[in-house]
UniProtKB/TrEMBL annotation:
Protein keywords: ATP-binding, GTP-binding, Nucleotide-binding
Superkingdom, natural source: Bacteria
Segments forming domain RapZ-like N-terminal: 1-155
Binding site for ATP: 8-15
Keyword Nucleotide-binding: yes
Record has Nucleotide-binding as a keyword: yes
Annotated residues for binding of GTP: 59-62
Protein name: RNase adapter RapZ
Gene3D superfamilies associated with the record: P-loop containing nucleotide triphosphate hydrolases (3.40.50.300)
Annotated GO MF terms: ATP binding; GTP binding
Origin species: Defluviitalea raffinosedens
RapZ C-terminal domain mapped to chain residues: 164-283
InterPro entries per the UniProt record, alphabetical: P-loop_NTPase, RapZ-like, RapZ-like_N, RapZ_C
């Protein structure tokens, strides 16, 4: 029987992940007291039971009961059950934004600020995160992308790489993304914006891509950027980093940065890295009515 513990930061998507696992054939139970885990596993594996995949949601809502988690897991192992820990995480900035948008109160605070609850929870969950088999940072991924991640892990059983890479295009005139780990400036490349037939197109259009990558400087830059990122990835993983945001910027975030971001994304995907693409400012001019 496959037994998965689903835990992580409040607001990081634990409930969403549990629902997705249920869709993948898991029998799911949310917020089970950790002390009951061994007994629950026995019931699920009893003779005649058709349950072969179980996911149990455990979080800090259990208060002091959460401290029993490792005792419960040790007892589970002693009874011959193997388990895996799926940990959902997100940056403090994203968690605060999500709590404000949903107007929910953090479970570990009363009248204090949200960031106080997040800090408390990170301290409580530190050991659990260190022992997790899978850590998924949901800061920059869409719901469908989370579903794909879970499908790869629990259905296709592909090797799991802890580092999630976000390749993000942006426009400098709208500001540098505040969650960037690496920032590349491609404003040295000739700008398709000044060519009338390309002005209203983007780096997602073949004509713009061909123009941007036509220049030797663009090809050399892409090659050097690939080499740097490939060097950094294993070192970031070794240091326990779970989220890497590579931001590529041009003036408006519509032509050059989009083209180079797409190119880097395709290279990283082909090499098997967990990678997502995000064009932050590609539609900004449309939204502003320009």
């Amino acid at each position: 029987m496959r037994f998965v513990i689903v835990t992580g930061m409040s607001g990081a998507g634990k409930s969403t992940a549990a629902k997705m696992l249920e869709d993948l054939g898991f029998f799911c139970v949310d917020n089970l007291p950790p002390a009951l885990i061994p007994k629950f596993a026995e019931i699920c594996s009893a003779q005649g039971s058709e349950i072969d995949k179980v996911a149990v949601g455990i979080d800090t809502r259990g208060g002091k009961l959460f401290s029993d988690l490792f005792d419960g897991l040790e007892a589970l192992k002693a009874k011959g059950f193997n388990y895996e820990i799926l940990f959902l995480d997100a940056s403090d900035h994203v968690l605060i934004k999500r709590f404000k948008e949903t107007r929910r109160k953090h479970p570990l605070i009363d009248s204090e600020r949200i960031n106080v609850g997040i800090e408390k929870e990170r301290h409580i969950l530190k050991e659990v995160k260190e022992k997790a088999d899978y850590i998924i940072d949901t800061s920059n991924i869409l719901t469908r992308q989370l579903k794909e991640e879970l499908f790869h892990i629990f259905v296709e059983e592909k090797p799991f790489e802890s580092l999630m890479i976000t390749v993000l295009s942006f426009g400098f005139k709208y500001g540098i993304p505040n969650d960037s780990d690496l920032v590349f400036d491609v404003r040295f490349i000739p700008n398709p914006y000044y060519i009338p037939e390309m002005k209203h197109k983007t780096g997602n259009d073949k004509e713009v891509q061909e123009y941007v990558m036509h220049w030797e400087e663009s090809q050399t830059f892409l090659s050097k950027m690939e080499d740097l990122v490939e060097f950094l990835i294993p070192n970031y993983i070794k240091e326990g980093k779970n989220q890497l945001v590579i931001s590529i910027g041009c003036t408006g975030g519509k032509h050059r940065s989009v083209t180079l971001a797409n190119a880097l994304y395709e290279v990283l995907k082909k090499k098997g890295h967990r990678t997502i693409i995000n064009h932050r400012d590609i539609d900004k001019d449309k939204k502003l009515g320009k």
